[in-house]
Amino acid sequence: QGAISEAGRPGELRQPALQPCLWYAAMNSALCNDSTLSYQPGSSSYQRIGESTELALRVFVEKVGLPGGSASDLLQGAAWPSADIVCNRHWQSAFQRTAVLEFSRDRKMMSVLVEGQGQCLLLVKGAPESVLGRCSHALANADTPGDIAGRGGSSSRAAPHEGEVV
Questions:
Q1: Closest CA to 125 of 145, 108, 148
Q2: Are residues 62 and 87 in contact, defined by beta-carbon separation less than 8 angstroms?
Q3: 67-78 tens-digit pLDDT
Q4: How far apart are CA 32 and CA 58, in angstroms?
Q5: At 61, is the secondary structure helix, strand, or coil?
Q6: What is the pTM of this model?
Q7: Cis? peptide before 81, omega within 30° of 0
C-alpha cells in the first residue's frame, strides 16, 4: 500500500524513476541492504528476512521502478504487490558487491562498494547526521547539485560516477 508523491502536490507521482534523486535512492536501497524479500507461491505471501527498515527499503525500490520504464516491461503490467521482485533483482544483477563495511553504532552507517555498468561506487546508508557530515554535495532533481551547509559546492553538474555524492 501507499504511493510515492511529490511534496506539496496532491496525487501520486506517475513515474518516480524519472526523478534522479528517487532512482539513485532506490538503487542505493537495493544494493546497500542485507534483507531478503521473496515471494512464496504456496502461501501467496512474502517471506521477510531482516530488519523491518531494510525490508521497507526493498518495497520502496519496487515502487520507484527503474529508469526508462524498463521495470514495466519486466512486470508486463503487474501491479505492486507483484510476485516478482523485479527492480531489486535488476540492481543486484547490474552491480556486484566487492566490499561491505557493516553498520556499527560508532559509525551509524553502512557502506558498500559495488562494481558494474563500468562504474565503481561507494554506497552509504545510515543516520543523516553521520552521512551528511561526510558529504560535500547533494544530488538534486534540478540541473545542479546542491551545496551542503555552505561547504563549497560545485556550480557544474558532475555525473555520479565522477565523484558526486548522492
A1: 108
A2: yes
A3: 876 554 444 444
A4: 10
A5: helix
A6: 0.75
A7: yes
